[in-house]
Amino acid sequence: MAKTITQKVVFKNTTPKAVYDLYMNPKKHSMISGSPVTISSKAGSKFSSHGGYIFGEHIHSVKDKLIVQSWRAMGWDKSDVNSTFIVTLEPKGKDVVLQMVHANVPDKAIAGVAKGWDDHYWKPWKQHLAGKAINRPKM
Fold first, then answer.
1. For residues 14 and 105, what is the distance between their CA atoms, to the nearest angstrom?
2. H or E element: which one contains 23?
3. CA dihedral 137, 26, 74, 42 (to 10 degrees)
4. What pairing do the DSSP bridges indicate for beta strands 66-73 and 95-106?
5. Rounded to the nearest 5°, which phi and psi values hold at 30?
6. Which of 43, 83, 82 is nearest to 61 (CA)?
7. Fewer CB within 10 A of the terminal residue: the chain, N end or C end?
8. pLDDT tens-digit profile of 80-131?
9. Four-CA torsion 95, 29, 52, 34, nearest 10 degrees
């Protein structure tokens, strides 16, 4: 069985471009995650992060607005289907609202993946965007 994670995050005093680049720019993504990242906005390109623990294929993006990926983690069973990861970015005054849907996450991984987005992405992004040191949890 698989489940869907939905999360809404508000990033203060920033732009959709700044938030989009934290994920889609490999140097910025690596700097935030503390590990090598391979990523491209080209449809059909492969991506990986966290030392290859997370990997998949980039399906579609609209610069500074939308990211869609086929996504999975190393610990998932071979019988688990790839999940679908979708992020939309919307400016709201001086802030950016990120809406995330992560569908088809295996039941056994749902809690870890949901917490992982917050611990390894949203919190470090907020720290970085506020000009603070990034406090990374261990993988």
1. 30
2. helix 16-24
3. 150
4. unpaired
5. -65, -40
6. 43
7. N
8. 999 999 999 999 999 999 999 999 999 999 999 999 999 999 999 999 999 9
9. -110
